[in-house]
Write a structure and sequence with these properties.
By secondary structure, the protein is an alpha/beta fold. It has a single domain, classed as Leucine Aminopeptidase, subunit E, domain 1. It is built from three helices and six strands. A six-stranded mixed β-sheet has the order 2-3-1-4-5-6, with helices on both faces. The protein is globular.
Length: about 140
């Protein structure tokens, strides 16, 4: 597959990328603190929570997913690595979110957890994203 790899993650409209895939995007993929929507460095934020960090209604998230799909289609030379947006901290189920990506172009690859929703997509279009483990707290010296 040609092009730059773009990490697609669920965000909030406040752009507070403090946990989950959003924190990973902030630390590793150029996401911008305070910007919760669209392309940022090697990442793309799809809001699943509002500016007060409350989960958005599904129909609103679907609008942001559609906008992302349009963006991905208009950037065929990039590869979009779509995480399970909204299925962690926002509390959506995979079956509520994954089917919204059915119209995504071939330059999108998906978390392996969504394979059941895309039975016709080849194995190489899936990846496994595991959030980096939190560092254990160091023991205080006595």
């Amino acid at each position: 597959m040609p092009g730059n790899l773009v990490f697609v993650f669920g965000s909030n409209l406040a752009g507070v990328h403090g946990a989950g895939a959003a924190a990973y995007a902030l630390k590793n993929e150029g996401a911008v603190w305070g910007d919760g929507l669209g392309r940022q460095g090697n990442s793309y934020a799809i809001p699943t929570k509002d500016e007060y960090i409350r989960t958005l209604p599904l129909h609103v998230v679907q609008v942001f997913i559609y906008a992302f799909i349009c963006y991905a289609k208009s950037n065929p030379n990039e590869v979009f690595k779509v995480t399970r947006i909204g299925c962690g901290l926002a509390g959506f189920e995979d079956k509520e979110i994954a089917p919204n990506f059915i119209a995504a172009p071939e330059n999108c690859i998906f978390d392996v957890e969504w394979k059941q929703f895309f039975p016709d997509i080849p194995e190489d279009k899936f990846f496994s994203f595991e959030e980096p483990c939190k560092q254990p707290k160091s023991k205080s010296k006595k």
